[in-house]
Amino acid sequence: MIKKEGIVELFFELVQIPSPSFKEERIIEFLMDFCQARGGRGERFPSREGVNLLVSFEGELPLSGVTLCAHMDTVEDGRQRIEPLKKGSRIVSAGETILGADNKASIAMFLGALGFIQENKIPHRPFSLLFSFGEEKHLAGIREFPVEHLLYSDVLLLDASGALGDIILQSPFHRSFEIEVRGQKAHAGIEPEKGCNAIKLAAKLIERLPQGRLDSVTTFNLGKIQGGEATNIVPDSVSLIGEFRSLEPGRIEELTRELEELCAQTAGTEVKFTDNYQGYRLDQADSFLGELIQNLEKLGKKPQFIQSGGGSDANILRARGINAVNIT
Fold it and tell me: For residue 108, which phi and psi values (nearest 5 degrees)?
């Protein structure tokens, strides 16, 4: 049996390697060295913003191969030095920084399992480890990975919150928006009559926007406002930036039309949309999924199918024809 202490030690080492999005160079070197020292064939896939890493291992068992996927990056303050601390049965940050468990806890488990089967000469199926960059930035890294280089198209991710071993049955469609509200600039003290305050126009529009959980499968959020230059200038431009998500693609289109209609009612207002990722629903009859459930049950888990309001690399992989499954 894999010793928990070894996984914890690996996790501590991983979280102390800074790897905010698009700054994953040091952890890439660590992962490449670790895997190659254990017989892996590693290949870097550089792109404009970062590098994805794929490491493959041959197997002895006559079973189909599988890919284990995790992202290397953390949220922004991951560039600070992180000091993990074991507090009872929990691991926390000793200071004011993030811990970085997302997704380094998964990486530690993958590496711990790799070390265990190698040290104990346990026969295993062939497998690959896929490490992506920039996941925290709208899944940027996995978009750049050439999936035709995957040796095994059944992919397992551990990148969701919830009870241990539950399976993400559905993940949402995600569309972001940016509304540009335009007024007229003028000096606020000398000739305010010549101005049209874009902030006031934006405030009236904001009052009409939906917000929060709209129904059981749909959310909407206005998350950022930018505008204005100085207190003595009537502002001529304001940007409203937000997103909406839904498990139902039809709701995405309904909200898109609603925003377009609202903006059309305010002169000088434009809205632009960006599709960040497509949603999915697993086929519960899939053989890889069935095998995964059997293995979880052997470990004493009773996996539940759950819906998620968040996205993961699985969204991008599934949209590109890869059989990716994300579990908690």
Answer: -60, -40
